[in-house]
Amino acid sequence: MTDHERLVQLLATRSARRGQFTLASGAQSTLYIDARVTSMSPEGLSTIGPLGVQALEASGWNPDSVGGLTLGADPVSYAIAYASALSGTPSPLRAFTVRKEPKGHGTGKLIEGPFKPVDRVAVVEDVITTGGSALKAIDAIRAAGATVVGVIALVDREEGGRDAIEHAGYPVISLTTATEIVALVK
Question: pTM of this prediction?
């Protein structure tokens, strides 16, 4: 089994559910993919990280850091950054988190972690539906001075989010799609 097949299987067996759900976008769906159940597990982290590094290397984007809107993007970003350090690359990727709102105390930061305003950033998303979370993270990252080189998603639900992000001018890579996952959901 390839790492990609393993990831699809993990998402299908652990994260995908059938029923009636309201998504973060407010849309109704009969499929819910709680990617965190997979992305926060040891098996998920150890599979997602290397696949993310490989996808980013193949993209030619050459990011300095990866991050996105908390909470879904966090484990995916951390897995990719950790795997990049293990890969022996001379400049491992740094991971950061974009808060939904600036912190109300301390430094009041919107972006946490070793983010630098001069970074070339790959925005991370766990599940793309409408693209709204990725676009919100892009706005925060650009406002902080960094350059966004693209969006890498764990899952593309194939419901228009990729198109919205690409229409805004950012290329998108997805490690899996809803179609691949649904084919294995029992």
Answer: 0.95
Strands 111-112 and 94-98: antiparallel
- Look at residues 145, 8, 132 and name the one whose alpha carbon lies nearest to residue 64: 145
**Domains defined for the chain, CATH in brackets:** 35-176 (3.40.50.2020)
User: Phi and psi for 163 in degrees, rounded to 5?
Assistant: -60, -40
Structure token pair of residue 55:
């996808």
Residue 148 CA: distances (Å) to CA of 5, 9, 125, 174, 182: 29, 31, 13, 16, 31
Residue 106: predicted pLDDT: 65
Q: What confidence tier does 125 reach under pLDDT thresholds 50, 70, 90?
A: very high
Q: What is the pLDDT of residue 88?
A: 87
What ranges make up the beta strands (E) of 23-146? 28-33, 65-69, 94-98, 111-112, 120-128
Pairing of strands 147-156, 172-177: parallel
Within the chain, how many helices (H) and strands (E) appear?
7, 8
